[in-house]
Amino acid sequence: DNDGDTGTVVVTKTRPKTKRPNMYRVLILNDDYTPMEFVVHVLERFFQKNQEDATRIMLHVHHHGVGECGVFTYEVAETKVTQVMDFARKHQHPLQCVMEKK
Ligand code: TYC
User: Fold this and answer.
1) Is 62 in the pocket of ligand 1 (CB under 6 A)?
2) Which of 58, 79, 92, 98 could pair with 39 in a Cys bridge, judged by C-beta atoms 3.0 to 4.6 Å apart?
3) For residues 67 and 20, what is the distance between their CA atoms, to the nearest angstrom?
4) Ligand 1, closest atom to CA 33?
5) Nearest residue by C-alpha to atom 10 in ligand 1
6) Which residues of the chain have pLDDT under 70?
7) Distance CA 82, CA 87 (A)
């Protein structure tokens, strides 16, 4: 570069800055009323889980109270939470879905 004033040549060095985005876990919570099959369906429909993985996650939540559906950027995680909560409400199930920063 040239500073245009004194004619001094200024050499600048650029550094490729690749900032990693903050990541968020999407979790589902256990309750006493939501049918197991409904939770499996949610995991297949909104989190692209196969039936085996969906069943494993659902049973983990059933026994431990909480479980991970996936890890996403903020906007994607927020969209998943809203989709699951809307779908559960539409079917009158109390299923809860939340996100937490990793
Ligand atoms: N505990 C529920 C039942 O016995 C099943 C269930 C599993 C509910 C996972 C919610 O996130 C959940 N029908």
Assistant:
1) yes
2) 58
3) 25
4) 13
5) 30
6) 1-11
7) 8
CB 84 near ligand 1, within 6 Å: no
> Which one of 29, 39, 81, 93 would you pick to mutate in the ligand 1 pocket, going by the greatest count of ligand atoms within 8 A of its CB?
39
Q: Going by CA atoms, what residue is nearest to atom 11 of ligand 1? A: 30
User: Is 69's C-beta closer than 6 angstroms to any atom of ligand 1?
Assistant: no
**Residue 84 to residue 16: CA distance in whole angstroms:** 38
pLDDT score of 15: 85
Q: What pLDDT is stored for residue 65 in this prediction?
A: 99
Please report the ipTM that was assigned to this predicted complex. Answer: 0.99
**Dihedral angle at the C-alpha atoms of 56, 58, 60, 63, nearest 10 degrees?**
-140
Exposed, middle or buried, 20 (CB in 10 Å: 0-12/13-18/19+)?
exposed
